Amino acid sequence: INDTHDKMNKSDFPSAIGLGIAKLDTESKNIYGFSKDVTLIKILWKLCIISFICGYSDAHTFLTRGVFSTMMTGNVIILFVAAASNDLSLIAPSALVVVSYMFIGVPLNILLIQITKSWEKAYEYTLAVVLTSATICVILDTILGNNLTYYISLIIYGVAIGNLCFWTSKTGFLVMLHTGNMMKIVEFMYKYCLGYNLGDSKAQGDSITIILLFLCFILGAVFASFINNSITRGILLLPVIIITAILLTYEQFCRLYGYWNRKRSNDTVNIAPPDII
């Protein structure tokens, strides 16, 4: 296995205006499989878990509130159809998700990336936002559960998912089941299944990545649908809380473990402890 690691210098860091378009370089590795060299990004496992969370969240909010938590095309359609029929029960939820996702969640992640000057640190803060938001939504839904908390939960969770999805978009992959992703899935499945010899190693890796993200999203949605009949509405978000907490603690554990290993191997060298959020 050959590892390649491209790091972005601070001077090359994109401005806030360019963040919506620029794709940040990510660490990748080359593997040999199916008689081909395949280039995969090393954060593929993170993207798969995040895709699972997005699929789970979409199914959860659709089953309990009638809207999608991510910025799906369906949300915009639901909003305009509800507006045309004056259905206030759907206008407010879909509008809240669209506004909180686009105008609060995405700008929040841009701000986090600009403040931390680090894509990796922004990831940790983003997960912290998702964990906090999901916890608040569980408390609001289970303890209070009135109309006011219903809308507040949509805003809070829409902000968190918008924050998370914008971070993942910098890899060049969308973890949600957008219409564009579905077209890419067909193209990449053709390249992988019917024309595997087409394209270079990165193209092969992209095809595998897109297919895995699609499957993880579907698994998340199926899982949410499966447990919806046996668990109360508020508790449905507990898997999101657990998975996000594991992602956060795993990152910090690996950082501390690496630090203490380096310190033990060379006690004479002063090694500064890692930054812990």
Automatic annotation (TrEMBL):
Its organism's taxonomic lineage begins at: Eukaryota, Sar, Stramenopiles, Ochrophyta, Chrysophyceae
What the entry lists under InterPro entries is as follows:
DUF1275
Q: Which UniProt keywords apply?
A: Membrane, Transmembrane, Transmembrane helix
Provide the transmembrane region boundaries: 66-84, 90-113, 125-144, 150-168, 208-228, 234-254
Supply the name of the protein.
DUF1275 domain-containing protein
Entry-linked PANTHER family:
SLR0142 PROTEIN (PTHR37314), UPF0700 TRANSMEMBRANE PROTEIN YOAK (PTHR37314:SF4)
Organism from which the protein derives? Chromulina nebulosa
